[in-house]
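Ticket #4471: complex job returned nothing on first submit. Input attached below:
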Amino acid sequence: MLRAIWLTVQNEARLLIKDPIVLFMLLFAPLVIITVAGYSLGSLYGSVTNSFRVPVVDLDHGAVSNGIIAALKSERSVAVELLDNPEEARRLVTQRARTPIAIVIPAGTSAALAAGQKPHLILFVDPVRQIEVDALELRISELCRVVNEQARLAAQKQLEASSHELHDKLSRLTAEVEQEQTKVRTRVARSQAAIESSVRKQIAEAQQQATTEAEATIKEREGQAWRDVEQQLSQKQAILMDIQRYLIELQSSQHAFEQWLQQLKALAGSHASDIPPPPAFPKPVSEVELAELTKPVTPPKVDSTLPQAPTNAFSIKIAKKTSLGDSKLSAELEQFQSLNTPTLPGTLGFVAQPAGAGEAVAVNAFDLYVPGFGITFLLIGMMLGVALTLFDERDWGTLKRLQVSGAPLPGLLIGKLIARIIVGIAQMVLLFAAGWALFGIALGRNPFALLIPITAISFAAAALGLLIASISRAHDSVMPLGVTISMAMAAIGGCWWPLDFEPGWMRDLAQWMPTTWTMQSFNDLMVRNQPWSVSWRPLAITMGLGTIFLVVGIIRFVTLKD
Amino acid sequence: MAAPPILEAIEISKYYGQRLAVDNVTLAVRRGEIAALLGPNGAGKTTTLSILATLLRPDRGRILIDGKSPKDAVRRTIGLIPQSLALYPTLSVAQNVWHFARMQGLSRKQARESCSRVLEEVGLGARAHDAMHALSGGMKRLLNLACGIVHQPPALMLDEPTVGVDLQSRERILSSIRRYAENGAAVIYSTHYMEEAERICDRVLLIDRGKLIAEGSLEQVVALGGGKPRVEITYRGRLPNERFARLTGVHEIAAMSSEGKATLEMNSLAQFGDVLDGLRGLGLNVIDFMLHSPNLSDAFIALTGRELRDQVQ
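Support reply: We reran it on our side without changes. The output follows.
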């Protein structure tokens, strides 16, 4: 079996090399169609040069119209044609090819925009070419947004310039005012210092005179007071002398009484104990104490000095007149200076950002059409390479002859499929290489990762070719049946247009087609710049569908051989 | 004791829908033997060959190849030269032969040697690198033969191998087949050209409507038809029918026309001289004659009641 497979692969290679038409179909035909489709449909993505001729009637002749015309001219897909007459523009839209839309810029558009009004462009559109019109309208809308944004930015810039100029003037004015204020403050400070010095001198002199007078008065009054005290004390000292003599006499009487009592008791004999004790005499003041009373009183010494007032105890506060009437102006200037430059209200726009990291926002139309039409032609190639050649081999009788040789039919079929899968992979690789070299398509993070969907779709397409060969009744029915199935699969699977264009039931149907998953894988790897690991699920589904095609195809083909 | 058969069909039958294409056919072919499978178009020759070549499974009966059931390894002992050209038109002569040689299990070295040998044998050595589609019809037939014998199969089946070829190519094909059988191969040669069968075949298998109606050596099958040699004469003069009938060696008058032509059926070919002498003796001026021995076609007509080539274009 393996030998049969290997020899069949070799023979298929020989057959292919000998067949220039198939080689043309495999490589050059898809390149031609990709080029045509890429440049034709690529205009919808804005990637095709001069695909639309857009008449522009400039009645404004202002900055806005100049900006719009310049922006339109910079669009790759648009060739601007300046006209004077709006009716001529309208006529061209209805009658001429590649002119689905015309633009009229009314007079006064620039002025109206500058005045803050809402001017409108007039678009003449051909409803028959709605897709092209939509694409161009989207672009013109973007241009208007850009013009508006530029106008707003210009106004904002002008406002900022004026604001800066005013700010500078205010700064200079503030500086001058502050300079004048400084001079006035200096003069005021000098005046205050002179006044303060004069007042301090006068105060010191008055203070000195008052002190001298007070001291004299105090000394005089002190002398008089002491003289009065000494007089009163002399009088009291004489009285105390009399009291001292009485006390001494009292003390002698006490001694005489005690002697009498002794004698009385002695006389009383045994009745002496009946005599009650006499009352005790109070203890007389000692002589020392009495002598102290008689001493002359020393008059108190009165401190006749006046406390010296500190010279710095006097502070003379002179109210400072710092603002001199200009403080309000200065504050207002400062407040005005601190104000920010006024800002115009912005315009609400959008910035398209890639949903995935590293993904490009703007897609090259060929990023979609190279894999899309590559898959389409791969499927058609498999119809030719597998289904038709199987019928050829039936017609030639070579298949029977090989069977007689003992080569198992499944082995022959698998060998043929492997050869065609290899050819399919080579075809896709060459197409991608040509797409990269000619149209600059993206190959994603790792170009080798593209081999995953390429291999999967080559396998599924080859198996589909076998299935179609097994269900076709004759050689002539292969092409109609095969091409119909291939085209439908390619179209529904999103090879020609985005899957989202399709109605829901068709999208559901697409889930059962290998083309859908392969396109998803290509889009993930190339446009969305995803890692190769995202290809596993599409790979598994595509290979699964291919295996179903293969098994059914082999069973049917083997059954049909009798 | 006869050599054991290489190819055997034992009571095989094959239906296509309701139509019985092969009806209980039993046959055997031995080494060194060329068996002609004869019959008109649609008689069941190709179906019988396809069953013997293991391309079709019989609905009844079985086949044996070299005494064994046809497994893959055994099938390599078979060579099939199909009626249509089973060749790759875009490949060269050498590439065609090479591919079938390799598919038949030859190593690269064996295939290289066999390719050179067989192309020289069929006279295509000088055209080895020409594309198949650039060859003449006869050369394509030769290439078709070369692809079937490149691996030197012990059993070779040929289905109308000389249809539409020039005389020179036919001679080369027939001589190649004869030589191949002489080298020990068992050959089944399907044709509706009687003369080819008569020239190279050892045995004849007559088939009609799926049935094997006669089998044996050429003479045996012709004898089964019961035919006698005939002579067709063109003469000048008049002679009554009864005088013809009384000639020595004449069995009966097969046909008589008023334009001086008569067909006489003879008892044996050896009596032709006597018949000619008798005609001269009767004074008849014989200006032309043509001898016709009884052949397979006669036998076939006799056995089936219809012409062997009645459906041949």
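The longest strand of chain B covers residues 5-16. Closing as resolved unless it happens again.
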